[in-house]
Structures are given as C-alpha cells and as structure tokens.
Amino acid sequence: MRHALAFVFLSVAAGLPLAAAAQGSPPSYEPQKRLRTALDTCLKTEVMQGAYCVQKCATGFRAAASGAKPACVATTAGAKHVPKKPTYTPKPEGSPTPPAYGAAGGG
C-alpha cells in the first residue's frame, strides 16, 4: 500500500495523469532511417535528424525528440502502425541469370 501511494504521488508530481500512469507507455515504433551522404538530401517523406534521414511518422503518431534513436509515439489511444510490405518478387526458378559486369564475352 505504501508503494502504491508513493507511485500515485510521484505520478501527480511529475504531471502525469493517473490513467496514463496506470496504463503504461503508449504504443510506439522505430521509423526507418538511412545515413545521409554529403551530397544527399532527404526525401519529402523523410526528416533530417543528425546525419540520418528518418521516415516521417504515420498518421496518429508524433516524433519523439528525446533519446538517440528516433521513435514515433501514438497521440491517440487506437493508433496502429502497419509497416509497409516489400514489393520485391524473386525470379522464378530456372530463369537465366545475366552475366556479371566485366565478365568475358561482354562488349
């Protein structure tokens, strides 16, 4: 009981609503990032964060500025992030492989 009262007191002192303190942390995810070169600029779907271009957060999420790693934190209770699926499809078995660059027989 004493620990519970201390937790409630610290939550109120920190300015956190009791409901948020009881639920734990909101849903979050780490957005994709890529290292930016000297001559490279970030795309329209990215924001610059240090030496990296970081993907903008999905709808219902905001960028968390604290910490070394970029993070997107939910702003609404029901926010969900569905990562994009790759569109790459492998070649069918038995398809010819092009010769390597500079291989014998090339032009």
Can you walk through the features of this model?
With 107 residues, the chain is an alpha+beta fold. The protein has a domain at 25-76. Helix content is 17%, strand content 20%. The chain has 2 helices and 6 strands, in the order ααββββββ. It has helices at residues 2-13, 18-23; strands at 28-29, 33-35, 46-49, 52-55, 61-64, 71-74. A hairpin with a 2-residue loop joins strand 3 (46-49) and strand 4 (52-55). It is flat. The N and C termini lie far apart (82 Å). Mean pLDDT is 76; it is low at 1-22.
Shape: flat
Q: Bin the helical content.
A: 10-25%
According to DSSP, the number of beta strands is 6
* Unreliable stretches covering 5 or more consecutive residues: 1-22
The radius of gyration computed from the alpha-carbon positions, rounded to a whole number of angstroms, is: 23 Å
Arrangement of strands in the largest sheet: 1-6-5
The secondary-structure class comes to: alpha+beta
Distance between the termini: 82 Å
Mean pLDDT equals 76
Total helices: the number is: 2
Biggest β-sheet strands, sense, barrel: 3 strands, antiparallel
Classify the beta-strand content into a percent band. 15-25%
Order of helices and strands: HHEEEEEE
